[in-house]
Each structure stands twice: as structure tokens, then as C-alpha cells.
Amino acid sequence: MDAQKTDTPDKGRTILPLIVLFAVLWTIVVAASLAWNTHKAEEEVMNLARKEALAMYNKDMGFRLWGTRHGGVYVPISDHTPPSPYLAHIPERDIETPSGKKLTLMNPAYMVRQLMDNYNELYGTRGHITGLVLLRPENAPDTWESKTLKSFIEDGVKEVSELTEIDGEPFLRLMRPMIMTKGCEKCHGHLGFREGDIRGGVSVAIPMKSYLQHQAAQNQVLYATHGSVWLIGLFLIGFGGRKIHTGLQETLNAEQEVRKLNHDLEQRVAERTKELKEKEERLRMTVENAADGIIVIDETGIIDTFNESAQHIFGYTPDEVIGADIAMLMPDNEGKKHDGYVSNLLKTGRSTVLGVGREVTAKRKNGDLFPLHLAVSQTHMEDRILFSAICRDLTHEKKIAQELLQAKKEAEQANHAKSEFLSSMSHELRTPLNSIIGFSQLLNLGNNEPLSAGQSDKVKQIHNAGQHLLSLINDILDLSRIETQGFSLSLEPIDVKKAIQDCLTLITPQAQKRKIRICDNITSKDLPLAFADFVRFKQVLMNLLSNALKYNVKGGQITLSAEINGPYIKLSVADTGAGIAQSQLDQVFLPFNRLGHENGDIEGTGIGLSITKKLIETMNGQITVESVLNQGSTFSIEIPVCISVEDSENGIQVLPILPAGSWRILYIDDNESNCSLLNDTFSHYDMVEFISAHTGEEGINLAYEELPDIILMDLNLPGMDGFSSLHVLKNDDVTCDIPVIALSANRAKNQRQLALQAGFQSYIAKPFDIDDLLTTIATILSRQIRP
């Protein structure tokens, strides 16, 4: 038995090398991922620069070819364009027009050289025509060009590109040989060149500074991302290892149990390692397949271009598709739609698909159908019309979306479990706290057996500690309820001044004890009603006033002020305390972050401001802070005001407030009376533009053209019903993110559930209550501006 006890710690310590090993393995995995990603980023930058260089080269060669075909051009003689001494052997190098204007011949090389100089001045790109046999000394090759020209002649190389420095700046240089063709003998034949000879080369140099800066920015993001993942992994490994180590120390009472626990540990490690490898492989495949496919067709639908990414997406080789009809890449119904789009465009010049990304169904070589993101643009080339399509396979993205949805559900379940745990712990802690606080109060009363001064002081400390712990428990429970939406709000018109007066009644005695003056500039003002929860609004005010009191200096001042800020009432609470450094202002509303506690013995949980921020935002408001060190802080809240409407029968009515901003609301209903009702309702809101449609088809077109912020849709529409219309909207990239509220006179129990499952944001039964409808709209719109 003694030998077993002695051996147990040694076995426990064997866990430490495993923790170190996993940390090393994790570090290697993260480092490998970082190296691979930075390498891919560098490749991408170089490919982009090379494409720019090729575009510049092709432009120069196209211009040169044009000049060659025309035998050069005559231009007026000037200081910038003097006669070329190297064309003196041409009899008609210089001519004079009948009007007396003197012209000189510019051969293609002269033209391209001048064009290159202009591009260098404008954009920093450089170009150079050079060769080993020259007429013009200025065309002499530099060291890099000489080496490249020799590789053209001696090794038959067709192109050379390389990252080098010119005048101390990074450039991507690209060079291709110039071959003698018909039309070149006029200017270069006397140098001994014949058709087909390599007589030199054309080089272009693209400035790489901006590319390298972009690459550096990408690398910084990669370093930060991988560093965060690495640290999280190390924390998880260390935390898990410590738990295993502790478990072994407590439970290893026999050799058989030790072997069992070691076996379980090895199995978990193997599973975790496998998961990491699988995730790394999925990540690698996602990055490799991120490049978009490019397909170009003519106006008849014949495929002209089919790039490598498109080959990977559809499974065809270029030989199989170029010259074929684009319909081979679509299901039959999509092919007919495409023909209709093209026909309508050629007839009317208008199209709803050009320049807009959308999701379509495509067909692979093996016949499989898959979702594809497609963006089409139109190009005119002489007498031809070409359509370029950029496409991306959405199969993987759809799968990822499902995984994210599952992860969200799991997170919500975990959050609910946390709230249940906090509620249970609150009950368990409150019971002994009741005894601690109660008996400490009884001891201080102690009329029969008075306590000594020292005993009384200690009992007060016990009582204060109990009260502080009770406050902490209450704050944590409040924060948990807010985060999990475990509480309800009663939004209604409230009197702001009444709420402030109630709070001042509670806070003034405490301020007087510390000789802090409260300057009230609010209750004397004429303020409109606000739209909020009265109890929660007072909780927000009390939190701000309590903080202003706690963090103030003795004999200081608290100033309350108010102003109307558009559709909001802005209330400010300013103190004369120590203030907060600018670098710490972004931490003020973080939970358990007690900024300023180091300046004195100030009690608090560090949760109050976090609760305040979440409460005010839940009521469609916002909170801000301004502070100056050694001068004080000012916390300001903005809460929506109510809109008052005159009614001849009911006097003044109050409508719910909509969030600040400009909103466009689309209502789709075939009932004219309902449209008129909502039009009159929204006429009271200056920030709302109300539009309506009477059919699903008309509503979809309006949604596509007007892009409303929210859609109200009747489910029982003529023709295309509400469910079918929603399906069309959600499957179009332009309208898929617009929230839609379902309206229906069908009060069947499952109607609401069917609507929410279909993708409607909310469901309201007819006849609807205007206040309920407006409150629902306000809640949904507020999510778009304050997530």
C-alpha cells in the first residue's frame, strides 16, 4: 500500500510531458497553417502583379501591331517628337502637307517608346524596348534585360518575369521577345534581321510597393488570427491537462484504475488530434477552391472563354465547352430563362440580371445540380456583344451555413444552462446570506448585551460584506436575464421628469452625507413623453446617479441635463470625479471591469454599467461616455420620444416610436382598405417612405427595385401567395436579407408556426392592432442599426 502511494505522484507527473507535447504539436500545426497561408497570400499578390504586367505588355504590343499594320504614322514635328535620326534611311521620313505643315514619320517602336514614357509619368509603370543589336543607344539593355535577351536567343525562352529592384524600389519585371514579322523590315531590315528572327524584347515593370503593402496587411491579419487561435489552443490544452492531472492525483488508488484513466486519456487525445487534422484539411480545401470561375459567351450563348476555376467547378475541359452552348451548364428550366434574359436585353437594352450577383442552379458534367453564385456583365467589342459571368460554387458555403446554425443552437442551449445554474446558485446563496445579514443586524441592536466598539465595528463589516455579496448576486442575475432575454419589457409612454424625481428622492440623502451638490437642470424643463419601460428606465438612471456619487470627490457636484436630439431625448449625468483615461473608455461597459476602483475604497461589482448599456439598447436607445482625467465624466443616454397624434374622438393618442433614420416600408396586400389604413398610419412618421403593391409578383418587383428596409406581406394573395413570394425573395441575393412580417386573417393554430418556419421574421394575425404592429416593426428595424 505504501509503495502504491509513493508511486502515484510519479504517475501523475507523467501527464506534464504530454501537455508539453500537445502544446508543441499544436504550435507546429498553427505554424504550418500560418506558413501555408502567408505563402498563398504571396502567390496571390505576385499573380495579380503579373496579370497587370501582362495587361500592360498586351496593350503595348497591340498598339505596336496597330502601328506596324499601318506602316507607322505621321505626326507634327515638335520638341517632344523630333524626326528620328534612326529613320533617316527612309526616303519619306519627313513630309510637308499642301498647307505647309511639316510632319515626321513615327515608326511603331518610336510610338510605343513615347507611350511608355507617358505611362511612367502618369502611373509609375515602366516599359522598355531593347535588343542586343541596336540603332538607338538609349535602347541599350540593362543587366537584367541582357540576361533575359540571351535566354530568348540561346534557350528559346518565351517569357521571363521576376521581382527585382529599380532605383531602390521593388518592381515586377516581365519581358517577352520581339519577333520580326512582315512590316518590320522597313525599319529594322537594314540591321540584318529577317522575318522570324528575335530582334529584341519588350519589357514592362510594375511598381510593387502597393502590392507589397497589401501583402503585409494580409500577413498582419494572418498573424493576429493564428496567434489568437494558437493562444486559445494552448489555454485549452493547459486547462484540460491540469484537469486530467488533478483527477489522476485524486482517483489513482490502484494500478488498474491508473491504466484505465491513461487509456481514456489517450483515446481522447487521438480523437482531438483527428478533429484538428480534419478541420485543417477542410480549411485548406476551402482556401484552394476560393478562386472564382470566369465564363465568357457571345450574344448567341456560345461559350468563348472557360478558365481553370470554371473547369474545377463544372468538371469540363475547355475543349469540351468552348464553341458549345452555355445551356449545357444549366438545368433545362434555367436554360430557357437565360435565353429569355438575353433576348429581352438585345431587344430593349434593359436587363435585371446585369451587374447584380444572384444565386442560380447549375449542372456539372456528371449531371449533378448545385447552387452557384453568378454575376454577369456586358462588354461591347467592335461588332460583337460579349457577356462575362463570374461564378462561385456555393455547395460548401451552404454546408458551412448549416454548421453555423447548429453551433448557434448549441450556444443558446449552453446560455440557457448557465442561467439555470445561476438561478439555482442564487437560491442556495441567499439562504445563508439571510442569516448572516439578519444576525449581524441583531447583534448591532444588542440592547441587553451591548457590543464593545471593536465588536460593533467587526459586526458592521460582516453586515456590509453580506450586503455587498447580495448586490453582486442580484447584478449577476440581472445581467444573465438580459443576455438570455429572460425578462420582459413593458414599452409605453413614460414621464421622464417623474422618473428623475423618484431617483433624486433616493439618491439625495446619500449625496448630502458626502456633501455632494446635485444640480438638477431637467425637472424644470418641458419635455415630451418617452417610449420606454418605466421601471427599467429608473434602474438605468439610478445606476448612473449611483456611479456619479461613488466616483465623485467629497464636496463635488453632480449635474443633470436634458435636450431633444431629433426623435430622442438625451439625458446626461456629469460628475466632478477623477475621470477616466481616453485609452480606457472602450472598456467602461465591459462586465466586471471596475475602472477607477484604484483611486479609493469604492465598493461595486463592475456589472452596473454593462447592465445599463444592455437595458438602454433593449429599449431602442443608446448610451455614450465622455471623460477628462482629474475633471470628471459625463454619461449620456438617448431614449426614443413618443409621437402624439390628434384624434377628434379620442383626444391625443400616442404612437410607438420608430428608430431614428430613413426607412422604406413595403406593404403587399390585395385589400385596398388595409393599404389605405397603413398609409395613413405611416404618414405621421416623417422618416418613413411607404409603398404598396397588390400582388406577390408586383411586390417582388418593387422589392428588387426599391430595396425596402422591411416588408409587410399578406399570406393570402391572388396568384403567387405569401409563402411563394417569400421563397423568391429569400433566394435572390438582392432581397434575401430584407426582413418580412407575415399578416394573415387565418387564425389556425399552426399558421404562425408555418410562417416562422418558412422564414418570416414575425407573424401578426388580422385584424391587427396598430400599436402591436408598430412595436414589432420598431423592434425589427432597431436590430438593423444597433445589433
UniProtKB/TrEMBL annotation:
Keywords: ATP-binding, Cell membrane, Coiled coil, Kinase, Membrane, Nucleotide-binding, Phosphoprotein, Transferase, Transmembrane, Transmembrane helix, Two-component regulatory system
Coiled coil: 248-282
Entry's localization field: Cell membrane
Entry GO MF terms: ATP binding; histidine phosphotransfer kinase activity; phosphorelay sensor kinase activity
Superkingdom of source: Bacteria
Domain Histidine kinase: 424-643
Entries under SUPFAM superfamilies matching the protein: ATPase domain of HSP90 chaperone/DNA topoisomerase II/histidine kinase, CheY-like, Homodimeric domain of signal transducing histidine kinase, PYP-like sensor domain (PAS domain)
Catalytic reaction list: ATP + protein L-histidine = ADP + protein N-phospho-L-histidine
TM segment ranges: 15-36, 221-241
4-aspartylphosphate carried by residues: D714
EC code(s) of this entry: 2.7.13.3
GO CC terms in record: plasma membrane
Pfam family, one: HisKA
PANTHER family in the record: OSMOSENSING HISTIDINE PROTEIN KINASE SLN1, TWO-COMPONENT HISTIDINE PROTEIN KINASE
Function text: Putative oxygen sensor; modulates the activity of FixJ, a transcriptional activator of nitrogen fixation fixK gene. FixL probably acts as a kinase that phosphorylates FixJ.
UniProt-listed NCBIfam families: sensory_box
Name this protein carries in UniProt: Sensor protein FixL
Organism phylogeny: Bacteria, Pseudomonadati, Pseudomonadota, Alphaproteobacteria, Rhodospirillales
